[in-house]
Design brief:
With 127 residues, the chain is an alpha+beta fold. It is 41% helix and 13% strand. The protein has 2 domains: 47 residues, no CATH class; 65 residues, Ribosomal protein L11/L12, C-terminal domain (Arc Repressor Mutant, subunit A). The protein is built from 5 helices and 4 strands. The radius of gyration is 18 Å and the shape is elongated.
Length: 127
């Protein structure tokens, strides 16, 4: 969770095996994710031979961003028969802009199509 890393399992033991300074990791991660507090964030950690590391913090998952945009906790149980909500094209574009760097898309329009596909699979209608 953004801004809430602790040295407790599973993080501590995983980093301890790599001989990374866990306290330094927790401090740097929490500082970098302070503005995203409470959001589940994918992170790539590159650990070097000298036990230093580099953090690559990615945008929250597409599904969590879509659910936040429609104000729901979860998607539909049986899409497309069930609908969990609707999202406007402008909100869809906002989500696409936030996820653009993590997507395999060359334009914002193609990113919107990817996000719209995720929305459809969750039972979210785009209007």
């Amino acid at each position: 969770m953004g801004g809430a890393a602790t040295p407790a399992p599973p993080l501590g033991p995983a980093l301890g095996q790599a001989k990374v300074n866990i306290g330094d990791f927790v401090t740097r991660f929490n500082a970098a994710t302070q503005k995203m507090k409470g959001e589940l964030l994918p992170v790539v950690v590159h650990i070097f031979d000298d036990k230093s590391f580099e953090l690559q913090i990615k945008a929250p998952s597409t599904s969590s961003m879509l659910l936040k945009a429609i104000g729901k906790e979860k998607g539909a149980g049986k899409p497309p028969a069930e609908k969990s909500g609707t999202i406007s094209k402008s909100k869809l574009r906002e989500v696409a802009e936030k996820k653009m760097k993590d997507l395999n898309a060359t334009s914002i329009e193609s990113a919107e199509k990817i996000i719209a596909g995720s929305a459809k699979s969750m039972g979210i209608e785009v209007k």
